[in-house]
Amino acid sequence: MDLHAWITQQVDHVERLIEENEFPPSQTDGVRLRCEADRRILNRHRLDPAFPAFPGACEGCGLDDWGLPNIESVNDCPELLDLAHAHGITDEILASLDRPQPPEPDDGLPADFGYTMRITQHPTRPITTSDVPAALRGPRWKP
Prior knowledge:
By secondary structure, the chain is an all-alpha fold. It has 5 helices and no strands. It has helices spanning 3-19, 25-44, 78-86, 91-96, 115-121. Helix 1 packs antiparallel against helix 2 (25-44) and helix 1 (3-19) packs parallel to helix 3.
């Protein structure tokens, strides 16, 4: 469970408490509005699937000048950290949360696919001086 999931769990819990009338009637509307605001922030600051190299990138934090995610992990998103603080997160809970890892590359190529394999499977014929066109031969041409 990452920070986003932890906050979602906390908001779900507060909404259940509202349904069970655990808040005084004078506070119910305010708490309900706060949950709605939290859900809007959670919807904006979520995992960004556009960056497989950064599996935990936060969509709401945008991109830097190089087109890379400003925040590489939703656990480091300042907006989500502020929300988590409001819901009572502790340093111990934060440290125990999962940090998304990039998936192992599986491009369907053999493990030894590289320079050697390309040379052996697609050899090029050697270039000899006899292949040089006459227009390019200089005055001291030796075939």
